[in-house]
Design goal:
single chain, 0% strand, mainly alpha
Length: 90
């Protein structure tokens, strides 16, 4: 049975997951963008059955830190633009 605390952390995790995916889609580099999206999905999938609240909180903090890194890297990536790859189309 879910408790109020687990419901709150579930909402927080889903929100963080969506935010990280949204931020990763902003990478101008096709390779970075696809790597980030794949790695985020894998990480959340690996930990989807975690029930220990302390570990969940640690994972949330790690994800927040990773999201900040993604945001910085996206900003840096936009400062130094490169030509699009053939696979990206026009």
């Amino acid at each position: 049975m879910a408790t109020a605390g687990s419901s709150s952390s579930c909402i927080q995790v889903l929100s963080l997951y969506r935010t990280m995916l949204r931020e990763s889609k902003k990478f101008s580099s096709y390779s970075y963008r696809n790597f980030a999206l794949r790695r985020i999905r894998e990480a959340f999938q690996e930990n989807k059955n975690e029930t220990n609240p302390e570990i969940i909180q640690e994972l949330i903090e790690k994800a927040k830190s990773t999201n900040e890194i993604i945001q910085r890297q996206v900003l840096i990536g936009h400062l130094y633009t490169a030509q699009k790859l053939v696979i990206e189309g026009q």
